[in-house]
Amino acid sequence: MRFMMLMLPNGYQNAPPGTLPTADAIATMRKYNESLQKAGVLMALDGLQPPSVGGARVTFSGGKPEIKDGPFTEAKEVVGGFWIIQVKSREEALEWASRCPAPPGDVIEVRQFLEFSDFPPDVQEAMMNMPAIEGET
Amino acid sequence: MWRIESPRLIAGLTRMVRDVGVAEDLAQDALVAALEQWPQSGVPRNPGAWLMAIGKRRAIDGFRRAEVGERKYAELGLTQQSQHELDAATVDTALDDDIGDDLLRLVFIACHPILAQNARVALTLRLLGGLTTTEIARAFFAPEATVAQRIVRAKRTLTAARVPFEVPRGADRAARLASVLEVLYLIFNEGYCATAGEDWVRPALCEDALRMSRMVAELMPEEPEVHGLAALLEIQASRIGARTGPNGDPILLKDQDRTRWNHVLIARGLVALERAERLGGAHGPYALQAAIAACHGRARTPEETDWLRIVALYDALLEVLPSPVVALNRAVAVGIGYGPAAGLEAVEELHGSGLLDGYYLLPCIRGDLLLRLGRESEARAEFKRAAHLTENLRERSMLLARASSPTATQRGEA
To answer: Of the candidates A43, A87, A132, which has its C-beta nearest B257's C-beta?
Structure first.
């Protein structure tokens, strides 16, 4: 089963441009990432700039898209990076998240992927009969 | 935690006690100790090192017990000395590299050719995959007692034969490595195309094999075929979500909704394939199969598939892996790339050889090609024959449906 571990760094919503982890922090995190890779559970990982760099929110409050540039100072927390892992159980996912060398105050939100098989059969049927997104002829 | 720590733990302990069975018992003891102590003491900074220290401690106690025969003494020794060792273990960072070597030795031992194939599979899932006997039994529809027995016997065989705990070098290496890759591929295939039971795919087993293949690729980064296998499994696994319909029925490759393929896995597979090729392994049997899978993985629509390249890759594969099943797959590719008449010609050759008598896919593919040539009644008979040859219930019902109404669906490579 697949899980996404969403890293919510403390105060990242207000981080100014150029906010980067220290060389030490990078080295520590690298070791952790290697342990995920060596165990064969890591599918993908990446980091995100703070919302002040290139970030925007496209909201649909009136049904129409509205663009609001970052930073999102009113947000309680924002995503700073993610891992996608493939593990045997929820317990294992939580175990991996707990092993992350995250600094005090950070949060890792662990979320399970929604799989096709999670939908009831009739919804699956409907999804399958939909034309594929990339023009299949 | 067992799943994360047990392979490394068992590997490290095997080096010490030279017996996988004993090492596994020690590892389990260490885990029990952790479950007892951690709720009070908190999880140590380096759980793996903590467990290893406990396991080694118990191993030493075991040696002592054997020598002095005084059980009590050993137990006292444990409580007094363990704390010191645990403190030392938490700063033991050099551990990691050693463990990598031990883990690789464990891989080779679990897949040792001295063991029967089903014993290798069970032992690998158990030692490297961290699966319980119950999980393995469920995965293979075997009674738990049978699997437990199989594992016990395998460990005994290894001990009796004094199989050295080492990474094979020299002439032995190629054959031993081939056995490792074969075991992982077998596990994956049992999940990808179940030979028995209700379900036609069992994704959990595929994930186990995939995980172990990534692990092994990390352990042997210089071996091209290891990356070839990893590439093959990643790309095949990318289709798992799209290979079954709502009722669990198989969906053929050409009918699959390609937006539901897992593109992260495809990308990973392509990277692994490139790595295999860069290491000079483009003509390894797994790398070639991965290259074929990649042809499908890259095609955004079935029509975009480069069938001529696939035929060429099958030709190359037949040179290194001259098997009738490969020849049959090649015939399917020929049937699409060069037309049904050419495909049927290739199939007839195989049919005549008698090498695939009893293999359900032969009549199935023959039926397809006959149908495309407009020879419907012959096609029906072939589908019927195929249905009676398969053990998988889902596939059987699909084939029977085709025998009664052959034009409704067409068979492709799933």
So the answer is: A132
Q: Is the pLDDT of residue B360 over 80?
A: yes
Closest CA in chain A for residue B96: A35
Using one digit for the tens of pLDDT, what is the confidence trace for B119-154? 999 999 999 999 999 989 988 888 999 999 999 999
* Residue B43 and residue B178 in contact, taking contact as beta carbons nearer than 8 Å: no
User: Which chain A residue has the Cα nearest residue B211?
Assistant: A40
User: Quick check: A109 and A8 in contact, CB under 8 A?
Assistant: yes
CB contact under 8 A, A134 and B300: yes
Asked whether the beta carbons of A134 and B300 are under 8 A apart, the reply is: yes
- Most A-contacting residue of B211, B220, B253 (CB-CB within 10 A), to test interface: B211
Annotate B250-281 with DSSP letters as a single string: B--GGGS-GGGS-HHHHHHHHHHHHHHHHTT-
CA B55 to chain centre: 29
Interface test with B, best of A118, A122, A123, A128 (most B CBs within 10 A): A128
Give the integer Cα–Cα distance in Å for B216 and B110.
13
Reported pTM:
0.84
Does any CB of chain B come closer than 8 Å to the CB of residue A95? yes
> Chain-centre distance of CA A22, in angstroms?
21
Nearest residue of chain A to residue B241 (CA atoms): A116
- CA-CA distances (angstroms) from residue A131 to A121, B77, B357? 18, 70, 40
Note the helical H segments in B193-244.
203-219, 224-237
- Residue A69: enclosing H or E segment and its boundaries? strand A66-69
Amino acid at A27: A
ipTM over 0.90: no
Nearest by CB to A121, which of B212, B246, B265?
B246
Strand partners, A57: A68
Q: Six-digit token pair at B303?
A: 């029509």
Strand partners, A83: A5, A45
- If you search the block for the tokens 């950070």, which residue do you land on? A106
